[in-house]
């Protein structure tokens, strides 16, 4: 029997989630339609059109470990550590990573990634010891991932894929694990958590997890923002990340439409079951640009801080961003980025001995934008007692919890760049150090 490879399984998984999410949140379908319209107008390739990232949230280290096992069965590995408790203006009680393919060929086949957050239940700034006890007891009782799903995932990871009925079953069970549960929610418990933090209620107030959003990639996010607004979707007030400006697209720009009312069943304090609504799931969209080196990232952070200052004078975020970026000495083309060592590139040699550098697409997330996306979809800021000590989490804690290496985004981009440089030099019979100086940039950042 033929094996379905990890990338084939991943493609099926992303497509199945997309179908399910479109059924659950019809506005998502509108978003995908508009994104597809824009991309095909701009000559978007197959990868861009199929590209999605998902977001999910879990409650315990054990759930995080299990979800990591499920994703490994689709060839997705943890990359990066994001602490959203003190990244944005409003604290979000989660720490996060992204599960994604790490090999460039796998990314090319299907780059599906899932931003995965864990509630920091033991952070006393958010949860009192008494509440923490009840929250932990609630979470310990639930099962998000069945033994059958976890076994199939492990077999897929070990064997680099699954055959026939096993492959079908794996995709089916994994997709169902992220479906919005029809099970009634305990109103009193959900409300108690929601008073502390809406994200805490979404994660710890219910007996299952669900996909929070599924994000298509678009080649012109400003145009998408306008078109969705024109179709009557209520958009958040800005596009997160760098502005549209007279220079290359870097890193990641994201925006979303606001979370919509969704009907859910609740068990009321008197024991009756009645329909109610929650408002937590939204539609996000993103535009990706070139991955920046640490030096480039530092310049980016400085420009973002200057944008904050400019926006505080009354300019819109976009106007502030554009004026700051265009007045700065940030390179206005890829060649400039390359010469200044601010962006990551791969290299290829032509028949005639010239070398072309192609920008590497940023495959990861931005902590500040992530916090902004969380916040912009919360109805209130929640509460936090800043006088208490926060629980400590870092990338090593994450690796220990997941039982595997957590890759640093920079290492992956740098290694990819080095590999291609070496191969190119070898082909031309040169030393790699001789190459970069003579490189011509042939392609642009819209890696379509
Ligand atoms: C995740 C929010 C972050 C992104 O694209 O930065 C995110 C969530 O709402 O669970 O998805
Ligand atoms: Ni997202």
TrEMBL record:
Alphabetized InterPro entries for the sequence: HGLS, YdcJ_bac-like
Family recorded in the similarity comment: Belongs to the 2-oxoadipate dioxygenase/decarboxylase family.
Cofactor(s), names only, from the UniProt record: Fe(2+)
Keywords on record: Dioxygenase, Iron, Oxidoreductase
EC number: 1.13.11.93
Pfam families per UniProt: HGLS
Protein known as: 2-oxoadipate dioxygenase/decarboxylase
Coiled-coil regions, chain positions: none
